[in-house]
## 1
Amino acid sequence: MKKSIFREYDIRGVVDRDLTPQVVRDIGQAVGSLAAERGETQVIVGRDGRLSSPALCDALKAGIRAAGLDVLDLGAVSTPLLYYATHTLGSSHAGVMVTGSHNPPQYNGLKIVIDKIALHGEVIRDLRRRIETGDLRHGHGGERSATIRIDYIRRLSDALQLPKPCKVVVDCGNAIAAHTAPPLLRALGCEVVELYCEVDGRFPNHHPDPSIPENLADLQAAVREHRADVGLAFDGDADRLGVVTDAGEIVWPDRVLMPLAEEVLAGHPGAGIVYDIKCSRHLTTLIERLGGQPVLWKTGHSLIKAKMRETGALLGGEMTGHFVHADDWFGFDDAFYAATRLLRLLTRQGVASAEFFAAWPTGLNTPELRLDMAEGEPFAFMARLGTQADFGPDARIITLDGLRVEFPHGWGLVRASNTTPSLTLRFEADDPAAMADIQDRFRRRLLALQADLVLPF
């Protein structure tokens, strides 16, 4: 069993190479054993729309039953619905989602919840120890099925009625969000234009990752063509959201977080807002101006949620599009819920979405940039960079997660991804000259370490 599949905040690998049915069965038995130690007698299971997910889900369920726990199978659902089930069904606070999230089609993985909390770090890695040492329970659990989608849609549509209807283009990228997003939006009173809302694990139109601008091109065109009020895109398991204005402009998640933060702080003055290392410095300034407590933290949905629990923060977000509401929701990342909160804000304001977002501060910035490497190389590269991080006398280096280097006129970031073998980078600056200066400093430093890098900037 490969050590590399046990990531910081989930389990992930290439199907048949890293993740075989036997591997997933063993992990299921380890999860069942851990859940039993925490007092559970049942584990809730769901799966996304990938071609490999049904077989891997069967293996997972067999492993959980082999630990003597019962399985409650939700079938094909989005990750937020699995999280929702662990909070609302009452029969279990443990769950496992079979999903490759936003990774390429040949990948799959597991997101694990115990005590309503997504596992991360050493707790995930300890599952491998259990398997290798035989620290596993044995028994004969049962299995039954349940449906959660209708209850979930009813709860959101009852709680978050929109002041007036709006026209929405929704791009599900042929992923599992297609089962929930269109009916939810219609229940809210929206006129819905569906784009790639047929589940197809081959992802024939574009990859379901709204953090990559190219994947939003069709949504941008459709919003303009249909004269929609806004466009919404979901990733492979619907815990990440992308937003496009009526003018066809992409709104990056750190700017989406701004009006969401204002709304939370209006109802809860002084609340904490947690956001990841890739987010704009304008977000920090805005939260402070609104009287909130800005908390800059590491990238990773499980890490953001853990920091929210630690600090009592009521909202969290990531540049990848994860949004976590804990004011009037359960404190898990849910793109459907975040989209609904955003639509309520937009319809309350009564202005075009492009005008709405133009009111929020912004600077010159890049999307998240990716530099692919061989497995294991990114963290080794970052270790070397950390010992040679000379970016000039005016640089302030933050080593919270990778290297975020702040300058008087902007900042740059390079870090090792926890989900794919790659470096991720992002830059923000006051103007084009400042952007060129910051990127040049990074370019010289990175190429000094490895001259053959093909940099994405």
## 2
Amino acid sequence: MTTPPRPTPPAAHTGPLPWVKLRAASATANIFKRMIGEADPKSRAGDLVAVYDKSGAPYGVALYNPKSLITLRLLTRELAGFTPEKFFAERLARAVELRRDLFKLDAAADAYRVVYDLGDGLPGLVVDRYGDFIVLELYSLAMFRQADLLERLLSVHYPGAKFVRRSSEYTQSMEGFQLPAGPRTVTRVKEHGVAFEVDLTGGHKTGFFCDQRDNRLAVSQLAAGRGVLDVCSYTGGFGLYAMKLGGAKSAVCVELDPESCRLIEKNARLNGVKVEPVCVDAFPYLRQMAANSRTAGLVVLDPYKMIASREGYREGRQKYVDLNRLALSVTAPGGILVTCSCSGMLSWDDFLAALRTAAGSARRRVEIFRKSGAGPDHPVAADHPEGEYLKVIWCRVL
């Protein structure tokens, strides 16, 4: 039996980083297993590596994990003079500058996204600010290994911040790392003067949906005198904004998770407003509401991600049709429906088509007057359109 030849480093390779040579280039920052040629025998999962194209020319620096489907996550095309400290310091400073200096988010809220993955050139990392807490959501082994450095560099911009690290069990299993369990951490934040209690360790995502901040404010501006139905409410965001800022007549918040319903009640008390939390699945609730001929003047649909994989696309798309048909059936004539999708795999065209199908089935005329997405703290990289996951359609229902 012959021994396979030892991988040969590219002639251009110098410096301390292990190297990886590509078989094929990628149009995006994500480089998959099939695109990898050779790898430095000294390279290990979770390393930062110097990347070279198939001709041996410098290609950049990436996060490396041969056990992951995304084997390389490209950080930069600038290989010369790369050091982790300098690179991460510059990228984090640039991300903070966007939020604080350009968009002045500190004036509106003490909860916002500080780093949005590829949108900020930091693949495998999401960072959210919640008051005095900074939450790191880690999607790659390499970012997990850089967490101490990231926290130290973020402390420059948020002195005295307390840090929380999160990662789903699925990500930890796929990437090959384990976060130690920490204590339950709860804090309070404000957006446009509306207060929320946030569970940083047990809540969905990093504890709160910062992406809907601008849409919550816009909903409040349409709520005056209307009965509001906030469906898939999570912790009551749209309903609370409508009552506290918008002068809504009433707000019903429909949410299946009992713990989230308790947070809705607590958040209502924090804001000195009255909302009605209903702890039930949205589909049967809306069916019963329609059967009882009950309507609302402003309906917001913000369901969980109903398309999680390509295999589940058809079933998930049909759920969007069904949920929107039910919502249209309980929207008062002349009322407003604000319908959301956080499924990145559902395109704008398909979301609009689902709404058209739902409108036809419900026999309602729908006039779309606005389309929106996540706030500016969720920038989308031009070569990663999947980052535009949140889609919101605003319409009058006749």
## 3
Amino acid sequence: MPAQLDSVYHIARRFVLDKWGGTEAVVYNYCSQMMKNGISNHIYTTDIFCDKKEEDLDGVKVHRFSYIFPWLFLSREAKEKLKLKGGSPLSLPMFFRLLLGKRPSVIHTHVQHRLGGIARTVAKFKKIPYVVSLHGNYLTLPKSEATKMMSPFEGKLEWGKAFGWLLGSRKTVSGADAVICVDRNEYLKLKELYPKNKIVYFPNGVELDKFANKTADAFRNKFGIADDEKYILCLSRIDFQKNQRLLVKSFAKYSQTHPNYKLVIAGPITVEDYHEEILQDIQNYDLEDKVIIIPGFEPQDTMIAEAYAGADFFVLPSQHEPFGIVILEAWAAGTPVIASRLPGIQAFSHDQQDILHFTANDQEDLLEKMCQLDDEKLKSQLKTQASIEVKKYSWQALVQNLQNLYCELIEKKGDVK
């Protein structure tokens, strides 16, 4: 008899439309696809950037709770930076709601640290399985970026360590019933680190119908891109990981030989200082009339698909990347892609076949790949192969695999009805 999978509670650090990122997209698609299969899904998160405590997103129930950053002497500026990235918040209201509330079939946490410890503790108390998704950077975050993320805590006293110890935060990953990795490199490292644990490589997906067969007329009109102008698109969070400054510098040279091109950089700003550096680069290279910055779309905005559809090609210049959902979105829209040569991207894409890889952080190599796309035959080849490859990543098929994993874990716990 198959295990009864009725409801799943997802734990996320934050979940708000105007600060949408890859993790939020994954969680939302998990929920919306499973709901089509009759499985109730709830998202438990903090009220970072949104004071709406309860929200219904197309049937997906979102529950937000107050939180704190448990350090003494944090400045207001430091707290604002931590809201955008990092911070390991603590939410006791979330903990007690989960502990005293209904018993779901599975808890699936998309965050570690204290919130992950809450998921672990509640799952053990209710005797249900819990799953941890690692959305990249668990073992592979560059030291320089980790240092930047920890800078707000310099000289501060972390009194929240006691709660982390009580919740078993450090055991969130090692004690999980299953760990899901979207980064194949991280998956292989975890398999070595925890050989007895269930570690699963589970790539991200894309809504094929959302991006296929779109036109860009409304997008061009809204942002002042003429019909006889072409544009390059970069859609991702605006921060140092995504490395948009490298693209601006390469584009400065590219535009000298391609004067009818514009560059569109779109995405939520998660590091304001980095955004300011991009603006300064644009001014220094005299590109004010060539570069358009759009500070984010809401995920349901139809102009996201239009932006992809109208782009001559798409560039993802990240310094590190666990997967790269935006590559799948560009493929689904029929747009050629150039991306950094990184393990997470190489795990699902094939250089010179469905994508052009360039050496990460190499401005000249990126420029060379951009110029290669002057070759219309190469463009057509990339688009054709990508259209075949992207069909492997439909959310419908991926979520069915996830449901199968949940059922396997429920059976293992003995919760068979």
